[in-house]
Amino acid sequence: MPPAPRPTVLAAAVLLLATTGCSLLAAPTTGTPGGPAPVPPKQVVLAAAQALDDAGGARIDVVQEGPAGRRTAGGSLVWGAADEAALTVTDELGSGRLTLKDGALDLVYQGGAAKHAERSTAETVDPAAGPDPDGFAGGWTTALITGPGSRAYEVAQGVKLGSLGGEQLAGVTAAHYQGSAPVAELFGKDAELSPQRNAARLDWYRRQGVTSIGYDVWVGPGMRLLRLRETVRGSAGTTVTTTDVSAPGAADTAPVPAG
Fold this sequence. Notes:
Blueprint: H1 7-20, H2 41-55, E1 57-66, E2 69-78, E3 84-91, E4 94-101, E5 104-109, E6 114-118, H3 140-144, H4 148-158, E7 162-169, E8 172-182, H5 183-187, H6 195-207, E9 212-220, E10 224-234, E11 237-246
Antiparallel strand pairs: 1-2, 1-11, 2-3, 3-4, 4-5, 5-6, 7-8, 8-9, 9-10, 10-11
Helix pairs in contact: 1-2, 2-4
């Protein structure tokens, strides 16, 4: 799992945001003559990532669309002292229930057999996965059980983001940031994976004809991370995965085992 944002890294960003205010998040990069400069996109996304990690949990709703079809997932995700998830998933095998508890991952389809894996081998439960236990299937399952704050942190650290201004999203005006980075730079030195698993991931992107990955991030008032989007263009077409993030409701705070 990607490391949580470090407070020491974000101290300057949080201080700057506190003194300039959220109204400047979507300001043009040129700034306003005589006024304070807009907050750099990297600092905004880092601060939003930290705020979400501090929250300890969220509801996520994920949609992936591409040449292989459409997949969806939605439900609760908890991170911190204990990572847990309880998600309803729909993919090419039908509807199922994906749960994570104490590092154990279970995916149970309606009327079908259960798939089991550890966090480190989460990709193996993906219908598109091959037989290699160190293989990579596109990152769908891994993204579902990884806190969106940690993913936003990786984007802020590895992607040069630019501002697209303000947009209406989830009933508020959100700042929209966008950028892309070569696959080799994004994943070439990932210390969270073994050399074998990282090599398998890089090889998967190479075989798909993917050289770079695009990212969009939306941040709302109060440093709320509202949406993450990943765009992967390869030889087979374009796959877009969008994750919407919201505060957990009463029914989302305690994931339950799959039945």
